[in-house]
Design a protein that fits this description.
Multidrug-efflux Transporter Regulator, Chain: A, Domain 2, 3-stranded antiparallel sheet, alpha+beta, 12 strands, 22% strand, 38% helix, elongated, 278 residues
């Protein structure tokens, strides 16, 4: 007579829940080899250990229960290899996405550390940047509603490689047309793209914000408070004898998603500049 194991013993030996084994029986995925007709107790045999291990293995690599049932009823080398290749691709994509998110988290942590340690508000300065890459919606933004709608469109159109956009959203404004503009009037909205992979650089909608020297200013507030820092930055550029070499770029760094205290809101306005004497 074969050694029998109760459902509790089977669950304990395989580090799983008794309810899971009951469910596997109910859906016909992994029935016990014997059920006591008098009390309904389920019993399993040693011969079933490998079957359950295989089910748990397939579940671990990502197969649904229906896919596992199909695999168990069609056990061929070709079928198994095909399944492994399929889930290798799926898991590789998950890893890429996880690395993308991890890099964004690390960048934000570094950025917040820098913001808390060395940011001086309302004082223009120059800083050097490497090339930065972004996706852009070039529709004008002249209200909060337009801003949110344009951002939603941008994310929807590029969702295959955009995941988390908080802290990466920016707006552009041209130096000439911005004079005398009302608050919250911008030429376009964009999202910076992380540089964890070179693949997206070949995507036809990715644009490059060229590296170089940028005149910059941190200020309290958000999109609606850009005029005063814009004027401060204009004066700074003029006093330094610099020439403007790009549109202005504005990005909110700390807002209501990070803190409930409006006095802690922080944004940055930048414009690429050149020294005409160089």
């Amino acid at each position: 007579m074969k050694e029998r194991f109760t459902i509790g013993q089977m669950a304990k030996l395989h580090n799983m829940n008794v309810k899971t084994l009951r469910y596997y029986d109910e859906i016909g995925l992994f029935p016990p080899f014997e059920v006591d007709e008098r009390n309904g107790y389920r019993y399993y045999s040693v011969d079933q250990f490998k079957d359950l291990d295989f089910i748990l293995y397939l579940k671990e690599i990502g197969l649904s229960l229906d896919e596992i049932k199909e695999q168990l009823t069609n056990r061929t080398i070709d079928s198994f290899v095909s399944t492994l290749k399929h889930y290798e691709r799926i898991n590789r994509e998950k890893i890429e996405r996880a690395l993308h998110i991890q890099e964004m988290i690390e960048q934000r942590l570094v950025e917040f550390q820098q913001l808390t340690e060395r940011v001086t508000v309302d004082q223009p300065f120059c800083e050097t940047y490497d090339d930065r890459y972004f996706i852009q919606n070039e529709q004008p933004v002249q209200s909060y509603e337009q801003l949110e709608r344009s951002l939603r469109e941008l994310v929807q159109e590029n969702d295959h490689f955009l995941s988390v956009v908080i802290g990466k959203v920016g707006l552009t404004v041209d130096e000439v047309v911005s004079k005398g503009r009302a608050l919250l009037a911008y030429d376009s909205i964009f999202i910076f793209i992380n540089a964890h992979s070179l693949q997206w650089k070949t995507y036809d909608r990715v644009k490059r914000l060229s590296g170089g020297t940028y005149a910059s200013i941190y200020f309290r507030g958000g999109h609606e408070q850009t005029i005063r820092p814009y004027e401060q930055l204009q004066r700074y550029v003029a006093e330094k004898g610099l020439t403007i070499d790009s549109p202005y770029v504005m990005r909110v760094l700390i807002d209501r998603f990070v803190t409930d205290e409006p006095n802690d809101y922080l944004s940055i306005l930048q414009v690429k500049v050149k020294d005409p004497t160089e």
